[in-house]
Every structure is written in structure tokens, then in C-alpha cells.
Amino acid sequence: MNSKTTSQRAASILSLVLLLAGAGSYSQSANDPPAKTQIVFLGTGNPSANPDRMGPSVAIVVNGTPYIVDCGPGVVRRAAAAARLGVKGLEVTHLKTLFVTHLHSDHTLGYPDLIFSPWVLGRKEPLEVYGPSGIQAMTNHLLLAYKEDNDIRINGLEHANATGNKVNVHEIKPGVIYRDENVTVKAFLVKHGSWRQAYGYRFETSDRTIVISGDTAPAESIVENCNGCDVLIHEVYSQLGFKAAKEDWHKYLLSFHTSSRELSEVATKAKPKLLILYHQMWFGGSTDTEQGLLNEVRQGYAGKVVSAHDLEIY
């Protein structure tokens, strides 16, 4: 992932302003009346230490209730920022339900933050977590790592409650994994290189159907589960960056991720009303830009497409 000089960052900021102006017809502003179902991007980044993009995390907020998909670095503070922008469902103590696509670190480094920070700030309910095989072991180790911290907070002068730091883990299989009065969530397998289990999720609410790819190479399961959905949120890397990358990196990308050209083909088959790019990856230096990535996708896809940024609301 490329670092940028001051001049390059200035150019990126200008590009971002132009992109946001173009995306305005799709994304909501804080002054818009809230829809029944809102998509809030808490993090659109990847392993790069980009301070403008936190780790991957998407909130589906339905009737004021948040459902979080993945928990990259910065997830809780981004939720607090979204609450300040008017998405009251993302008040920190409301963060109680998490869906994990796979166990790569950039998608899970915010997991202890999501377990403990809302509890420290007053959450009383356990965190409910749905994810692939291995999420239980990860949880057990995290709870053990913070055992002394929890003991001091509960039994010391902070008088923290003894319930909000608990985690109920649900290791899932493909199919409907969650249902309540707001949403039905279906998990489906995707292709993410060497991972035995990596999932995408389909959220069905009263007013929208949303499919989130997670990290994946092109997968027919995305097409099948979108099938004309309202919103498809999909990872992507630029073709320009691919050409600039080293040969061993090519093998990795082809197995683990989806190029702009490949995404054009997937989206053409899936037919979403809106395609949103996230977890965007650039490897081609200063000429490998967000606008260029969008142009690459649009070369083979005629539908509506935007590139997401942290704290945008759709």
C-alpha cells in the first residue's frame, strides 16, 4: 500500500472533494431525515496505516438498532463520530451485535475495542458475535488477556457492571443465521484465498436488501445473493495497481481479492441498484487514484457506482 507525499495528499484531498460532490445524489447528509435502514461506513480501509480510512467496518442501522459487520481498527470511535453526526443508533453503548466476515487482523483488530469500550462506558448487555470457525478461540484469548483489567474495573473503585463485558459467540454455517423484528441476515461463503471460511452477508429489512462481500476473489455466491439487491458493498483493487505490483503479489491478489475489471463482471451479473466500493486497494503510486478506480469499474459496468469513505451514510 503506497505512502503519499504532501503534494500527493493535497491532490487526494481535492479528488475526495470532487468525489463527494459527485456522490451526493447517493449518500445521505446529516440533515436528511433518517431512513428506516441506513448504511454507515465506520471504516473503508485495508491493512495500510491510512489515517483517513479506519479498518473495515460497516454498520447497518435499522430503526435505530445497529448491526456491525467487521471490526477493524477505530471501530468504536468511528461509531461515536457517526452518533455525533446524527446517527443516534450508533451511540457507543448501543453496539451489541457483530457479524465477522473472516479472521484477518485488519477486520478484527477492533474486536477487543468493541467488547470492552462500550462496557467501560456503560453497556450492560453482552456482545453477540456471529462469525466463522475460530472466532470462539479468538474471543477466549481476548477475554483472558484482559482478565486483570476486568477484575480491577469490576471489583475496584470503578464499580463496573459484570455483564457488559461478556461475549456470546455463534460460530456459523451458510444460511440464515440471525433474525429479529428489524432484519434477517443470511451468511454465504466467498473465496478468500487460503481461508477455509470467509463469509459475505445479506441483510434483508423492510425497505432494503444489502449484500456485503467481505474480502473475496470473484464469487458466484455474490451474484446469487445480490440478484438485483438494493445495495452491493464490495471490495476491490485497481487494475492499474495490479500491473504495477510485483509478480508474487499478483498471485496473492488473484486468489484473495477482486479487481476493478472482475468487479464490473460480477456487478453486471448481480444487478444491484447501487454498487458501493469499500476496502479499496491501490498499489500503483501517485497515478493510482480513486477516480481512476471508479473509471476502471465503469468501463465494464453501466450501473450506479460510488466509492465509499469513512462516515458516509447511504
Topology:
Elements: H1 6-23, E1 37-43, E2 57-62, E3 65-69, H2 75-84, E4 97-99, H3 105-108, H4 111-120, E5 127-131, H5 135-145, H6 147-155, E6 167-171, E7 175-179, E8 184-189, E9 199-204, E10 209-212, H7 220-226, E11 231-237, H8 239-244, H9 247-256, H10 260-270, E12 274-281, H11 290-300, E13 305-307
Parallel strand pairs: 3-4, 4-5, 5-6, 10-11, 11-12, 12-13
Antiparallel strand pairs: 1-2, 2-3, 7-8, 8-9, 9-10
Structure description:
This protein is an alpha/beta fold and 314 residues long. It has a single domain (6-307), classed as 4-Layer Sandwich (Metallo-beta-lactamase, Chain A). 34% of the residues lie in helices and 22% in strands. The protein is built from 11 helices and 13 strands. It has helices spanning 6-23, 75-84, 105-108, 111-120, 135-145, 147-155, 220-226, 239-244, 247-256, 260-270, 290-300, and strands at residues 37-43, 57-62, 65-69, 97-99, 127-131, 167-171, 175-179, 184-189, 199-204, 209-212, 231-237, 274-281, 305-307. A 7-stranded mixed sheet has the order 7-8-9-10-11-12-13. Strands 1-2-3-4-5-6 form a 6-stranded mixed sheet, covered by helices on one side. The longest helix is centred in the first third of the chain and has 18 residues, at 6-23. It starts with 5 loop residues before the first helix and ends in a 7-residue tail after the last strand. Mean pLDDT is 91; it is low at 1-25.
